[in-house]
Amino acid sequence: MFYCQRSSYETEYESTVVSCTPASRKKEQSGKKVELKGYEVVFEDTVFFPEGGGQNTDLGLVGDNNQVLEVTRRGDLAVHFLTEQVQPGDKLVQKIDWDRRFDNMQQHSGQHLVSAILEKDYNINTLSWWMAESTPSKVGVSYIEVDKPISVDVMTSVEDKCNLNIRKSVPVSVTLFQRGDPQLEEAHTRGLPDDFTGPIRLVKIGDLDNNLCCGTHVSNLAHLQAIKLLYTENKKGKTLLYFLVGSRVLKYLANTLQRERSLTETLRNGPDSHIDLVEKMQKTLKISTKTNSNLLKEIALSEAKEKKNLETKPSYIYFYRREGDNDYISTLTKELSDYLLIVIVGEGNSGQLVVTGQGEVVVDIGKKLAELLDGKGGGKGSRFNAKINSFKNISQVEKVIQSCIAPSS
Ligand SMILES: [Zn+2]
Asked: Less crowded by CB within 10 Å, the N or C end of the chain?
């Protein structure tokens, strides 16, 4: 039992270093996993909660600037991963990142409350749960894994009941029992590891719920502020219920409002019209795309006709059209199947190359042009296809084609 579990609301604690060993951890830093060198430190006791029971690790400082990057449980010990070395015997002040801890407490106690209502009133049992980490730009949405599907109606009434109990300010208490205590029903201690020796913590929410748990919890449901159930997801026959508690509800709402404001600016109309407007835009876009495609087909037909009407059959035909699409390409290849034809469409870093015709020259031109335009693809016989990644050398295409047709010997 750690100090953090005895006093969930304490943010600082002075304790003596028992051991300090060099170690390293793989940690994510600006999107990349990097190996960080540091020290594994054990104290006589700790205000830092070591991750476990679904609750994420505490972070913070030891002294003024020795950072605590992770705290894990190893047997009965809490192992702190610190950036700086400390000496056994040092008496140091531990300071937790309280905003993070309180947020973790809200999510964890909130999970107990949602699970309790689901089980008591709907016979839906919790199998596991997962606490999401928030990032500066994204609010972490945690989930509870349950054994039955949850309808939208049930979700709404569970949320109502949770918030009603928050308004009632139901107290949350932690009681300690020794193993085998007759006050503990056998059911509560089932599932404990055999080598478990410490006292058993029973977290009680009024007369709603009794649960064995190692986590740090709020002392009153009022501290949860609010619970929002977002949606469910079916995963391999099990249901995941996504939820937010307390400050995460407000942050999520703030992000949603920010997006709404941006949409209002872009669409130049109020939030009530957003869906209508986007639906209209999608319809218009569909019609425009269709019209565009038809026009491109017309262009291809007319271009093909012009080539077919030439008095002397050209040794090759080359078309490059930025806005060309698949229909444009297939119309040309169909209409000009008797010619050596090279079609390129696209711009920037995305496009297509098609070569059709007779003889080895098809693949020869295809390969050389793919190389010229940083393309990937291949072909055999009468057709060569490639995806183009760069149009930097597009002006040299004809030169390459000509060199393949009449190799300078
Ligand atoms: Zn718990």
From this structure: C
Does 173 reside within a domain?
yes
Cα 168 to middle of ligand 1, angstroms: 21
Question: How many angstroms separate the alpha carbon of residue 354 from the centre of ligand 1?
Answer: 61
Co-location of 142 and 238 in the same domain = yes
Q: Is the residue at 175 inside a domain? A: yes
- Residue 76's identity, in one-letter code, is D
pLDDT at residue 397 is higher than 90? yes
Instruction: Give residue-wise pLDDT tens across range 242-284.
Output: 999 999 999 999 999 999 999 999 999 999 999 999 999 999 9
Query: Any idea what DSSP says for residue 49?
Result: P
Is 201 a member of any domain? yes
H or E stretch covering 370: helix 361-372
Please state at what angle helix 247-267 crosses helix 274-308, rounded to 10 degrees.
50
pTM of the model: 0.78
Q: Can you list the alpha helix ranges (DSSP code H) found in 190-343?
A: 247-267, 274-308, 326-335
Distance 66 CA to ligand 1 centre (A): 29
Phi, psi (deg, nearest 5) at residue 259: -65, -40
Q: First CA to last CA across the chain, in angstroms?
A: 87
For residues 71 and 128, state if they share a domain: no
Distance 108 CA to ligand 1 centre (A): 6
Q: What distance in angstroms lies between residue 205's CA and the mean position of ligand 1's atoms?
A: 12
The answer to whether residues 49 and 140 belong to one domain is no
- Do 133 and 212 share a domain, yes or no? yes
What are the DSSP calls for 84-147, one per residue? S---TT-EEEEEE-HHHHHHHHHHHHHHHHHHHHHHHHH---EEEEEPPPP-SSS---EEEEES
CATH number, domain of 13, equals: 2.40.30.130
Rounded to the nearest angstrom, the distance between the alpha carbon of 211 and the centre of ligand 1 is 7
- Is there a single domain that holds both residue 158 and residue 204? yes
Residue 322 CB neighbour total at 10 angstroms: 12
- CB-CB contact of 153 with 121 (8 Å): no
Rounded to the nearest 5 degrees, what angle is found at the Cα of 23, between the Cα atoms of 25 and 61?
75
Tens-digit pLDDT profile for residues 131-190: 999 988 899 999 999 999 999 999 999 999 999 999 999 999 998 888 778 777 765 666
